[in-house]
Amino acid sequence: MASKIFPVLKLATKLTVVGGAFYVVYDSGLLGSSEQGTEVLGRAKTAIPPAINEWMKYFGMEAQVPELPTIEFSPRQAWNSGVRTSISALSDGPTKVCNYTSQGFQYLKDLSK
């Protein structure tokens, strides 16, 4: 009987953890717009280091938390730049293929003369 309940309990635990993680991500605004993402990043920068120091003191550990790296670019402007670049390359693809094909044919014609 226990051997049948254990896999169900294991699956329920995994689904609970995944659902909780998704809820936290959605509730904090990480799945929203770039403005919301920038705001969440700012909140995380101010909240995480003090929380780590508090937990280190609680467990009696001594450690230095490294400084957060500075971001030299605006995450707001680079939010979907990869998507924009990919879509731009896909939309220019047929034109580029046509140009390269005509250049290749011209090169072959010049070689055959």
UniProtKB/TrEMBL annotation:
GO terms for biological process: cristae formation. Signal peptide: none annotated. Keywords: Membrane, Mitochondrion, Mitochondrion inner membrane, Transmembrane, Transmembrane helix. GO terms for cellular component: MICOS complex; mitochondrial crista junction. Pfam families: QIL1. It is found in: Mitochondrion inner membrane. Component of the MICOS complex, a large protein complex of the mitochondrial inner membrane that plays crucial roles in the maintenance of crista junctions, inner membrane architecture, and formation of contact sites to the outer membrane. This is MICOS complex subunit MIC13.
